[in-house]
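Closing statement on the NDP sub-project.
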Amino acid sequence: MGKVLVVGAGGVAHAAVHKIAMNPDIFTEITLASRTVAKCHAIAKSVKERFGVEIATVELDAMDVVQTVDLIRETGAELLVNLALPYQDLRLMDACLEAGCNYLDTANYEPEDEAKFEYHWQWAYQERFEEQGLTAILGSGFDPGVTSVFATWLKKHKLDTIRQIDILDANGGQNDQAFATNFNPEINLREVLAEARHWENGAWQPTPPMTRKVEFDFPGIGPKNMYLMYHEELESLSTHFPEIERARFWMTFGDAYITHAKVLENVGMTRIDPVMHQGVEIIPIQFLKTLLPDPGDLAGETKGKACIGDIATGEAKDGSGEKTFYIYNICDHEECFREVGSQAVSYTTGVPAMIGAAQVLKGIWNSPGVWNMEQLDPDDFMDMLNAQGLPWQVEELDGPVAF
Ligand code: NDP
């Protein structure tokens, strides 16, 4: 159905490109471009060995708009899938507008010198995409991404309104590392150490980072501590579903992760401003990223499951009063590794990136403009989750969450 250009060749791209190659009826030609072309070659080699599909590889600096425009034109791509870092989002959207290409990403734009997760920079592109007849899909990973599609599916099929929503992200994966993040360490630590915020009664309620802890019994995993955090879909969900009274995001962390993150923060290793080191300017968090394990490399040694989902409460469609539903996916690290050579966090992000891309190329999500996932029809996306390795379940709970 269409040609795709994937930008970025990290852990998420590894999973996404394998799944794209597994769907040749939708993705007719694949080009993979990134800063370090050797990483593109490694992904292309793995795809060729597993599925016999050829992928073109190119070196690209995604901050260079002219270079990206030329590449889009050369490849004839109808869709650019941005799996690089949030810092590249606006440059890649500019390139898509210039070259006449649709756009999709998995994380909202963030300025490099400020850990600020807000959509307004990307929402400002709405008119330009609309005028050019192009579609931009924001946040097509799991969270953000599937968590928003889950909310829309509940609103389409189970609940007339959503009064409160909690998004719960558990990673029960274990490996032999003393400290490792499950996606890009720099982006992960910026997110985790930022002030926690949730939406309640029309305003953002701040909480100091990693201080609000609750134990929850996760399906497929068991009891784990989860912490209140800010996450970007809280902004888009509370904007697009204005009836939401309370929206919160929770993520599990083990005690060892929290201790390491706090120590690294206390000694200044997570600073994002430049410091002079022996006459050379360095950014401590970028140096730290160099030292930490590459999450993509941990795929073979990670065991256990991840479980991500939404608990939503609102008025039932059948007129039976207020109901609460829990909708979630359970994903096994070792099964992901067997299928595509990825760990579950890369897989749960890469598969929805492929499915979002498929929605655009199938013509289901091709309305001109800039869209968050909860604004789009969920049904085919939900069917594809079941068919493409991320099956979901929905169950009714006795009542709203008590935490
Ligand atoms: P990685 O660090 O593993 O990969 C990022 C890739 O982008 C690397 O190949 C890197 O190149 C490339 N890159 C960085 N800068 C440039 C540039 N200027 N030009 C071209 N390529 C560049 O990250 P992950 O795969 O872990 O994460 C990818 C994205 O997915 C991130 O934005 C992350 O926030 C998002 N994400 C979203 C989730 C969701 O559920 N929505 C969950 C997890 C992640 P190089 O190899 O040279 O460094």
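Residues 209 and 263 are 14 Å apart (CA to CA). With this model delivered, the sub-project is considered complete and its resources will be redirected to Aim 3.
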